[in-house]
Write a structure and sequence with these properties.
The protein is of the alpha/beta class. It folds into 2 domains: 121 residues, Rossmann fold (3-Layer(aba) Sandwich); 108 residues, LytTr DNA-binding domain (OB fold (Dihydrolipoamide Acetyltransferase, E2P)), CATH 2.40.50.1020. It is 36% helix and 31% strand. The protein has 7 helices and 15 strands. Helix 1 links the parallel strand 1 and strand 2.
Length: 242
């Protein structure tokens, strides 16, 4: 996820950068943050890089932020915009360019946190991660990359799209880590599957997009398959409103 901070005040950029970094750590999300003191440098960068969120000061030296926002909106309609300003007078302009939020300086961390939470609600690719101890090191794993998790010889095995991360711990200690993410489903004891990677199911197994078969507990088959059907119904409905 790429975020741009555009503000001609170096102090305000530093404040934003530090607090967005704090948000990432507390909410376990990954963001790449680029800082711009000059609007033209941002616009040049935006030609090469697709930003998911731009946090934009409405008072800039050469162009007002609302003009920059209009240029963003015309070229990159999916990019979200949060305005920062010392005045509430420009709220109507923010509304006209469909800004996601509007922060009045000096704003608190809690106000920024609320704005970023709002961004998370409307952004479909928010990059949450978990952190597991693998050997002597801690490894960050993006939630969206986890296909399924199982257990073998006292090790949690997190199967991702690119590798397998193993961590020595009981499964019941690990499972709560994935509880906030509705895409994960228990399919048998000590195994959770990411439903976003399920390609099909039959009378015994889930078949994942890479062809891997994940068995479904016979005792829980009806409950598990109904939970999967409910998730897919809600997913289709969510996509229809994007």
């Amino acid at each position: 996820m790429h975020i741009a901070i555009v503000d001609d005040s170096r102090e305000d950029i530093r404040y934003l950068f530090e607090n967005i970094s704090r948000y990432c750590k507390e909410h376990r999300v990954h963001m790449q943050i680029d800082n711009f003191e000059e609007e033209q440098k941002f616009l040049s960068s935006a030609k090469e890089k697709a930003y998911d969120l731009v946090i934009l000061d409405i008072y800039m030296k050469r162009n007002n932020g609302d003009r920059i926002a209009q240029a963003i909106r015309e070229k990159y309609p999916e990019c979200q915009i949060i305005f920062t300003t010392a005045s509430r007078e420009h709220a109507i302009k923010a509304f006209k360019v469909r800004a996601l939020d509007y922060l009045v300086k000096p704003y608190t961390y809690e106000e920024l946190e609320n704005a970023l939470d709002h961004f998370e609600e409307v952004y479909d690719k928010f990059l949450h991660y978990i952190e597991l101890k693998e050997g002597r090191q801690f490894t960050k794993i993006l939630i969206k990359d986890i296909m399924y998790v199982d257990y073998h010889n006292h090790y949690i095995q997190v199967h991702t799209t690119s590798n397998v991360v193993r961590s020595y711990m009981p499964f019941d200690k690990f499972a709560p880590v994935l509880r906030p993410y509705c895409q994960f489903l228990w399919c048998y004891r000590n195994c959770m599957v990411n439903m976003d990677y399920i390609d099909s199911l039959d009378d015994k197994d889930f078949v994942l997009t890479d062809g891997k078969r994940i068995p479904i507990s016979r005792a829980m088959y009806q409950e598990v398959t109904q939970a999967y059907a409910n998730y897919m119904f809600e997913y289709v409905n969510r996509r229809s409103y994007i």
